[in-house]
Amino acid sequence: MSEAVEVDGQIRADLPPLEVEHVSVRFGAIKALSDVSFAVAPGAIHAVIGPNGAGKSTMFNVLSGVYKAAEGQVRFGDARLDRMRPYQIADVGVARAFQNIALSGAQSVAENLMLGRHHLTRAGFLSAGLRLPRATREGRRHGERVAEIAEFLDLGDKLHTPVGVLSYGDQKRVEVARALCTEPRLLLLDEPVAGMNAEETERMADAIREIRSALGISIILVEHDMGMVMSLADRVTVLDFGRLIADGTPAEVQTDPEVIRAYLGSGNETDPSLVAADAPTDPPESRP
Length: 288
Ligand SMILES: Nc1ncnc2c1ncn2[C@@H]1O[C@H](COP(=O)(O)OP(=O)(O)OP(=O)(O)O)[C@@H](O)[C@H]1O
What we know:
The protein is an alpha/beta fold and 288 residues long.
């Protein structure tokens, strides 16, 4: 069972836990995930960590419907995510922001964010094209919400700027804003600070905290930056070679002998036991 979390602000009333039960995924002879179970409490910031090749991306791809689990279930309230296609998963309120920015560089921030509203648009393309009153009203409403979300992520003054000319940190925040534009109840963040410098990382961590407290939604992140994970997450699931080796609070997993062994044995430089909760973040990595 998922444990309740304490949140600054209100958790959305219609927010179920996410329950991953006995999930396995195979690629030929490779078991990318073996019998993995964990739960994400409503309103939690929940991190999935592990050394390279541990199965983190595979887990995210299962949660977002890109990969099908060979065994096991993923439940989000009544919805069986493991039986759904990606667009159906988006429809039940699960949105993913991608690690490698998947934005249209020539289009403005507003245009990119509007794409996130697409599945919420009722007026069909024809009435929108003909500028019928209902479509115009709806377009205005979506435009206002897009502006609000951009403001929330400190992008308010960049709404009409082409995404391609923004800094890397700004582009990553547009990616998160676009996911938020789908009005999710569960936000999946795929390495949200990969390649960021310390200042950009701190800004993104603040934005994630604000998203949770202002919107009261659940957030799952896969992240390599251990300092950020330990200071941000309520709970941490640790994978290694496709198996779950620990699941607990940051303080619990940091001192778990199996976690320490997995990190030291993997050649990963960041040993979670050595990172204090308020430690400064890693130096910037090379950018994609
Ligand atoms: N599409 C695929 N085809 C074959 N093998 C795959 C595929 N995707 C992942 N794998 C394998 O599954 C295992 C888990 O990989 P995964 O990418 O999920 O790990 P990860 O924890 O995200 O690693 P990293 O931190 O390096 O991104 C690895 O052995 C990987 O080589």
